[in-house]
Amino acid sequence: MKFVHLNLLALALACAVPTVASAQWQWVDSAGKRVFSDQSPPPDIPEKSILQRPSAANPRVNSSQGNPAAPEATGTAPAPAIAGSGARPSGVDKELEEKTKKAEEAEKAKRAAELQKVAQAKAENCNRARQSKATFDSGIRVARLNAQGEREIIDDKGRAEEQQRLQTVIASDCK
User: Fold this and answer.
1) Given a cut of 90, is residue 117 above it in pLDDT?
2) I want to staple 27 with a disulfide (CB 3.0 to 4.6 A). Which of 13, 50, 81, 127 is the partner?
3) Looking at residue 167, what is its pLDDT?
4) Residues 17, 22: Cα–Cα separation, whole Å
5) What pLDDT sits at residue 80?
């Protein structure tokens, strides 16, 4: 009785092998040899050289190319989404876009604050230079402190140099 069960088991296994073998690719490579594989043939093998495909695999999919569901890998275009079908993209992209927008806005605000600070400093320099130039142009005597802390009156040559320097500051900051 055990012998009969073993024969039936062997017969069942023998019948199952062709179904497993049918889930394989078979093609003739460039050297003319038959190749059997559970993966699709490389892209350089022409369609006419493919002898057998798995029953569920109509398009050529090479697992070494990455995602077999990608349209580039299968050679098929993705099906267009039907309006109102309820298929919506995940919220991850929206969240990422929002974070990116917030980061860009923060960067713009930071740049605007820096530009405003620079503009304010230029305006202040402009006002000081104009006041100083007006003082030098008035002809009154102007004194400075030297390195020893003593007060010195600026002579005509120093006065002309300072007026030229102030004019340069006005030209650059008072635009």
Assistant:
1) yes
2) 50
3) 92
4) 9
5) 47
Spatial separation of the C-alpha atoms in residues 10 and 62, rounded to whole Å: 35
Q: What is the distance between the alpha carbons of residues 157 and 161, in angstroms, rounded to a whole number?
A: 6
Radius of gyration for the chain, computed over Cα atoms and rounded to the nearest angstrom: 42
Interacting residues of 153 by C-beta distance below 8 A, sequence separation 6+: 141, 142, 143
Q: For CA atoms 110, 114, 117, 119, give the dihedral sign.
A: negative
The pTM for the full model equals 0.40
Question: Which segments of the chain does DSSP mark as H helices, in order?
Answer: 2-21, 71-74, 91-138, 156-173
Beta-bridged to residue 144, according to DSSP, are 152
Q: Which of 150, 154, 113, 119 is nearest to 136 (CA)?
A: 154
Q: Which are the contacts of 56, defined by CB distance < 8 A and separation ≥ 6? A: 23
Spatial contact of 131 and 157, defined as CB atoms under 8 Å apart: no
- Residue 133: both structure tokens together: 């130039």
Q: Say which residues have a Cβ less than 8 Å from residue 159's Cβ, sequence separation at least 6.
A: 136, 142
How many angstroms from the chain centroid is the CA of residue 95? 16
